Amino acid sequence: MRIENYLPDFAVEAVYDLTVESLRKHGIEAVFVDLDNTLIAWNNPDGTPEMKQWLHDLRDAGIRVVVVSNNTQKRVQRAVEKFQIDYVYWAFKPFTLGINRALKQFGVDKSQVVMVGDQLMTDIRAAHRAGIRSILVKPLVSHDSLKTMPNRLRERRVLKKIREKYGPINYTKGI
């Protein structure tokens, strides 16, 4: 296992810390974002006022937001339809199927997109495989759904190796 495959390009506290200005500075015109524990808490599908403002700010600036999730269509659609967000379901991260589908479906150039997620094992690894930049965020809630727990166990081992080789991942308030 190459530890570099799990190393994010950036690490920020929360997806909402990504400002229009900072995204533009890095040439980003589209944000692919994981759903659970990244955009919304897995156990709170209504989102927060902060999340709604972030989506509004990006939309007003012409920066496209696309949810790229491993969840079912029903789950993703129910979570995002009230926010009018485009989405790709059954993304099969850490593989590139969902990211590639989103790139093609929404006509986004790889150099102008970033994948944002809370998991090294799925979101960051998929971004590396797809050849796009990645941003790791802290999970919105500290406890995971049962289906995420095995990934978190593996992730702890990977984080230990990253710390040993590169030092701790430092989360900032922006990129």
From TrEMBL:
Family matches, as CDD domains = HAD_BsYqeG-like
Q: Which InterPro entries match?
A: HAD-like_sf (IPR036412), HAD-SF_hydro_IA (IPR006439), HAD-SF_hydro_IIIA (IPR006549), HAD_sf (IPR023214), PGPP1/Gep4 (IPR010021)
List each coiled-coil range. none
Name the NCBIfam families on file: HAD-SF-IA-v1, HAD-SF-IIIA, YqeG_hyp_ppase
Q: What is this protein called?
A: YqeG family HAD IIIA-type phosphatase
